[in-house]
Amino acid sequence: MYMIEDLIRQNRSYRRFYQDQPVSRETLLWLVNLARISASAANLQPLKYALSWEPEKNAAVFATLAWAGYLMDWPGPGEGERPAAYLVILGDRDIAGGFGCDHGIAAQSILLGAREKGLGGCMIGSIKRDQLRQVLGLPERYDILLVIAVGRPKEEVVLTEVGPGGDIKYWRDEKGVHHVPKRRLEDIVVG
Amino acid sequence: MYMIEDLIRQNRSYRRFYQDQPVSRETLLWLVNLARISASAANLQPLKYALSWEPEKNAAVFATLAWAGYLMDWPGPGEGERPAAYLVILGDRDIAGGFGCDHGIAAQSILLGAREKGLGGCMIGSIKRDQLRQVLGLPERYDILLVIAVGRPKEEVVLTEVGPGGDIKYWRDEKGVHHVPKRRLEDIVVG
């Protein structure tokens, strides 16, 4: 068993956290550094990072996010189960006109690093961007690409296989375990 | 030192390989599986993978790729130093209208896995897409998002710091070592 397989398997999207267990600015910087030394298209490195790790700012960031679209009855984590920190991935339009998939590369490095430290998180793309721009005081030159929520996970997430009907919607069982159906390997290899 | 930091640091973009050291279909499937169990926006999992590991097909794929845009005098790896295999990341438009940064997440998982196995590679976005579509016999429903070249690396790649002029172009020294200037951590954190 290779370490990376184990780490990727454990690196699920977590949406409930021990909110009272802080994530320090130093830890966030360590995570940003993992993204910094990752690949970037044409090595342009147009990504920038805004950080939040203090309760008041966290609350303001939290208010701009939409959670778990498929869980219709769940408005997102309640007080006490919210992320302890956020990394906001920005695209600097003074550096590049587009950002390709650089933020995916960066986000994966960040979340794998978080997992190895016993943390976990979730990439969130459903964002009230104008509101978040105000919260963070961001100039117009930065596109808000992705928010990564981080904290010590307080839920169990398990991978299952997509059924014959092909439904990929994740769901939560009566014990609160979050189930994520993944397509089978043979169904994603072409030819 | 956390393992993942070491692995990400070692996971450079390699463009010259021991072409005669094959990468098996089994290894490619193991790499695809790492992408399979990685995050996908709204868990839609619209990515598919076409694989190449045999010399003849490799040659046909190679002919569709552009290499290392900043090395003006270098047309790409010569015979004997070419990748031993390719993974082509496709977006299935029957599943999603867009692919966000899913292919970045997938590519990072794949290349970290390759690195841990003693392999290495490079994400290539500069592709003669019509020609590659013909080589692979791909239906129109698949967007060609990214080609990942894979093999056992035959070059040294080192990270350096972007100088005061801010030039991010990588370069190769007289010993053939490839230098990649990365922005400083303090220059990519906003606020």
* Overall number of strands of chain A: 7
Greatest interface (CB-CB under 8 A), with counts per chain? A-B, 67 and 67 residues
Count of DSSP-assigned helices of chain A: 6
Q: Sheet with the most strands of chain A?
A: 4 strands, antiparallel
Query: How would you describe the oligomerization state of the chains in this entry?
Result: homodimer
Mean pLDDT over the residues of chain A: 96
Which sequence of strands runs across the widest sheet of chain A?
A: 1-2-4-3
String of helices and strands of chain A: HHEHEHEHEEEEH
Quick structural summary:
Two copies of one chain form a homodimer. Chain A is an alpha+beta fold.
Written overview of the protein:
The structure is a homodimer of 191-residue chains. Chain A is of the alpha+beta class and 191 residues long. Helix content of chain A is 29%, strand content 21%. Chain A contains 6 helices and 7 strands. The relative contact order of chain A is 0.21. The mean pLDDT of chain A is 96. Chains A and B meet through α1, α2, β1, α4 and β4 of A and α1, α2, β1, α4 and β4 of B.
